[in-house]
Amino acid sequence: MAPRRHPGERAVRERAGLSGRAALSDDAIRAEIPEVAAAFLAERTWLVLGAVDAHGDPWCTLLRGPAGFLRATGPRTLDAAALPGAGDPLDAHAAARVGLLAIDPLTRRRMRVNGVARPRPGGLRVTTDQVYANCPKYIQKRHPRPVPPGRRGAPACGTRLSAEQRSLVGGADTFFIATSGPDGDADASHRGGAPGFVRVHSPTRLSWPDYAGNAVFNTLGNLWSRPRAGLLFPDWETGAVLMLTGSARVGWEGTSRTVVFDVGRTVSVPGAGLLAPGEPGYSRFNPPTAPASPEGAPR
Predict the structure, then answer these.
(1) If pLDDT is split at 50, 70 and 90, which confidence band does 18 have?
(2) Which of 75, 86, 128, 263 is 20 to 30 A (C-alpha) from 250?
(3) Are 258 and 208 a contacting pair, CB within 8 Å?
């Protein structure tokens, strides 16, 4: 049975003029884990996790492990033999609504899993509510590998982007975003484009265009209902990660969309990510990066 959509998702679909196309995408979403999805998950060595912390702020983080650390143990049960690291904003031990994204940049395949995570010895057990694949658009082709053991550093926290962090964000071709809906369901998604598609307007404001996808609109629908988001920017050169949480809103020009994000808190963790140095194989779907607007930051 296709999932029921909350008012924010329905509103965005109607505003974008894609309600009919979105309904077709809904037909591919199931609560159970298909065999092809279970096989794909079992091959992964990292996973994007999105959830809301005890303060109600969404965050996006990474789980890592050897192939097999993700395992479907039942029709609607996924076990992850990994936990967020010490000092991670999602380093908690209570049940939580989570959004998971398993992605293979080398083959440009990705799988979304949303559900409820409960702690288990050495990891998490997720009861799935939504399982579905996404199209390969905007995924840059690269082969991430684990950071060598012992390279993880202490988290550094702040409320503004440093010059180094602004450089990382402004040159990014990939980031991940976590949101939650009005009923508390969490979601994690991928965003990609040519370097420079994320605009850094100030130490506390970013924006990026929302490119055409599968018209499900989990992310934008959640932002319509609850304008908060968590972002994760990998540093493929050093293996560090930059996590941000803050407010996000969608600006419309006709049916075109831009997301404006205002930074609330930042967490940077050396060695907590993945290594894939060098230029990737850029997606042929990446639109050209538009020149910076002379008006500066969106209002």
Answers:
(1) confident
(2) 128
(3) yes
Q: Where do we find the tokens 């990737």?
A: 280
**HEC letters along 17-54:** CCHHHHHHHHCCCECCCCHHHHHHHHCCCEEEEEEECC
Specify the residue for token string 């503004």: 160
User: Any idea what DSSP says for residue 221?
Assistant: H
Q: How far apart are CA 230 and CA 44, in angstroms?
A: 23
Residue ranges and CATH numbers for the domains of the chain are: 7-139+155-274 (2.30.110.10)
Confidence of residue 76 (pLDDT cuts 50, 70, 90): very high
- Can you say whether the dihedral through the CA atoms of 21, 185, 273, 63 is positive or negative? negative
CB of 95 closer than 8 Å to CB of 184 = no
Closest CA relative to residue 101, chosen from 183, 192, 184, 5: 192
Q: Tell me: pLDDT of 12 over 90.
A: no
Q: Under 8 Å CB-to-CB from 74, ≥6 apart: which residues?
A: none
- pLDDT at position 46 is 97
Radius of gyration of the CA atoms of the chain, in A: 18
Closest CA to 79 of 30, 114, 45, 120: 120
SS3 content of the chain, % helix, strand, coil (to 5): 15, 40, 45
The two tokens of residue 57 are: 């702020």
What is the average per-residue pLDDT within 158-165?
98
Distance, first Cα to last Cα, the chain:
40
Whole-number Å distance between alpha carbons of 152 and 61: 14
d(CA 292, CA 210): 16
- Residue 211 burial (10 A CB sphere; 0-12, 13-18, 19+): middle
